[in-house]
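Subject line: Sequence and fold of a protein, written as structure tokens
Enclosed: The protein record, placed directly beneath this head.
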Amino acid sequence: MTTTIAPSTARRAGPGPGGPGRRRWMLPGAVALALGLALGGAAVLQEDRPSTPLGAVAQVPGGLARVNGVLPEDEQAPGQADDGVHRVRVLLELTAVDPSGVAFRAEDWAVERLGARRTAALQAAPRQRTVDQGDVLRTELVFEVPDRAVEVVLVGADGTRLSLGADHHGGGFR
């Protein structure tokens, strides 16, 4: 006698739409989603002060600040600047309005570029000075900035942001 076995119509056990394989990925997926939302929310809510346009006046403690120009440094000796950057001379003007004056220290100023990377001044003349009420200080600060045309901003210790424009990126200023 021969026994015939009919094909089964029952579903096979294993990972399916609601099986254990799906549940295994739910927790890591939820954690990744929560982390993404938290980081995205922090980026959106990050308070970033807008920069004052090149040549316009911004308030600083005790007075006013303005970038009068950004000039490429004259011919640089080989190896003087890293690859991908060039040196510029920033002409900064500070005017003391308050009786307390304006305290200038070159170390308080830096260039900020894409990604919030800051570069301190390589040279400054003068390095430090107090500007009395009614007086004006014109100082020169030398920085290395990227060759690529990205937003570059001069940032003071109090958070003052002065745009350096993009003109120093063109015309072979490297």
The chain has one helix and eleven strands. The two ends are 95 Å apart (CA to CA).
